[in-house]
Amino acid sequence: MIYLFLCIALAFGAEIDVNTFSNYIEVSQEQVHIEWLLDLDEQYINATSQSIFRVNTNKLKKIDLDIYQLSIIAVYLSSSGNVLQHEIIKKGDQSLLQGDVLSIQLDRVYTRGEYIKLNIKYNLDSKGARALGFLTKEQTYSKTVPYLFSQCEDNNCRSIIPLQDTPSIKVFFTATVLVKDPRINVFMTGNKLYNMKFKLLNNYENLQALTLYQFELDIKIPAYLIGIIAGEVVEKSTGNGTYVIAEPHFIDEYAEELSDLPVYMNKMQEYIGPYIWGDYKIVILPASFPFGGMEHPLLTFASPTIIVGDKSGVGTAIHEIAHSWVGNTVTGRNWANFWINEGFCVFLERKILSRLNGLDSVKLDAINGNSSAFTSMQTFGLDNSFSSMHPNTTNRNPDEATSRVPYEKGYQLLTYLESLIKEEPFQQFLRDYIENFKFQSIDEDQLYQFLLSWVRKNKQEEAQRIIEEIQKVWKKWVYNPGLAPITIDVSTPLLADANNLAKAWIDGKGQAPEKANDFQQYKPNQKSVFLQYLIDNYKDVEAAVMTKMDEQYKLTFYKDQKTGYKWYRLVLLVKYDQALEGVHDFVSKVGVSSYLKVLYDLLGQNYNKQAYDWFEENKSFYHPVVVQAIEKILQKYPKKLIIE
Ligand SMILES: [Zn+2]
């Protein structure tokens, strides 16, 4: 079967997705509708999905879908109601990594061009649905009703909907969500409909008592872009079709911080072309949200860590806006081509940020990004494929490969290409790229071929030289692990200043250096570079330096969590015990996966007891994907028995 897939896939000249168990080449999902009855108190969902599939082969007898810990009740043809046989097939040790196969036996042999419409009745709960974060009402600010949010990327959508969970497949998505408590407001990917459009698939005894929400999206999306929040949330307009959504207590503060959303949107459109998705809504989630942001169309999610109070954290909002073009309109075909989403997105984000904050500030972002990418490479191993832009995720949960590597190496590649092609023509290239591949899922080779032919057509006498330069580095850049083959220029006086100040602190051995007060004037990205210098040289940082610096800058319990995170890394590396309560506070308040993974790794090494105690204490606060990741990290540092 795999051989057959390969033949068909190779005939198209495109990469297959190794992280789906579905037979998506033979039969492709075109449409997914879900009907969910939410019970947030019991953390339980009664669900039905209705999907339309198109047959792409002449002898289709079964449909294989991805599922993770779903309890499947029945599968039947939507038109006749005839029940279809199904079985759940386990693939070796993959059940807890990537899930199982829901294999559906069709009622006859189907041929190319036919359509099949299926309903699947199933249930899910907080134990199995690793895409969902369920918060009790006590974990919310107002403590009135529970809260639910999702995180389907990478391949966690299969834990909430049985489907072809691959970015190669894009579907029209619609939903009906029913809730028992009218105080619970629901938002999903897509437009909220104010007139009921979809007939209910099930009968509900107490229908009058339920509140019903419907959603529809008229552009096809891959499964990983499906998202939901439910809870006591409200939305507030920030002008020109942009909105902020949050718990009522925070809405004014957050809307104020994000009041420039229309500006970011305009700047982005000036650079890359028209925005096609409709309203732009951004949800600021509770602190358990595991990522900086997530780009569901019409329902971006963002961590509250982006709210700093001075608009200095809004780069994430700009990043998520950029995904509307790169990632959501043109999509990487599989998780090995994740950089096609993220590298382009970082490039657009920094293009807009350079117009808002200047090029030197963006260079600092690139330096910080590269240093976190390098930290991940060191953790993976410099010759590990996860340290490349094209990770091999066969038999792995692709979440394991998630790091800054594809973001930063992708950004660096595009910056290098821009330097070859020159700024204005490269902007045109990006616009042509979006136009050429819109609504498709592509891989690096399709992009490469398009790039070469674009250069040939548009750069005339320079074309041959540019093509040769690209050919020299492309495959190495994409496939080789470790740092990029060419270093882009990120030199800026802001870097030198921050490094000199950090060095002066180390050399001062507890005396504050002459320019110590410069730090207070730094933007968060320059503070980050400063702290990174100390992290890189932590063996030379004496305890007296930590004490004096903390006294002067008040870094323990710092408000900006990006700066706080770097400080606590340093605290754990140099074992500055006096700030340990700050670390405890941080890991109890911030649910961002990338921060927690690094801090728990250092805790496991240097503060074994606290690592286990604090993890146990905060387990219910962290999102399930983060709990799994930390458990895996702590396995490296077995719990030490302490006899008191
Ligand atoms: Zn992104």
Automatic annotation (TrEMBL):
GO cellular component, one term: cytosol
Keyword Zinc: yes
Active site as annotated: E320, Y407
Family: Belongs to the peptidase M1 family.
One Pfam match: Peptidase_M1
The UniProt record lists the keyword Hydrolase: yes
Protein name: Peptidase M1 leukotriene A4 hydrolase/aminopeptidase C-terminal domain-containing protein
Entries under PANTHER family matching the protein: LEUKOTRIENE A-4 HYDROLASE
Species: Paramecium octaurelia
GO molecular function terms attached to this record: metallopeptidase activity; zinc ion binding
Gene Ontology BP terms: proteolysis
Domain Peptidase M1 leukotriene A4 hydrolase/aminopeptidase C-terminal: 493-634
Cofactor annotation: Zn(2+)
Alphabetical UniProt keywords: Hydrolase, Metal-binding, Metalloprotease, Protease, Zinc
Cofactor note: Binds 1 zinc ion per subunit.
Residues the entry annotates as binding Zn(2+): H319, H323, E342
Record-linked InterPro entries: Aminopeptidase_N-like_N, LTA4H_cat, M1_LTA4H, Peptidase_M1_C, Peptidase_M1_dom
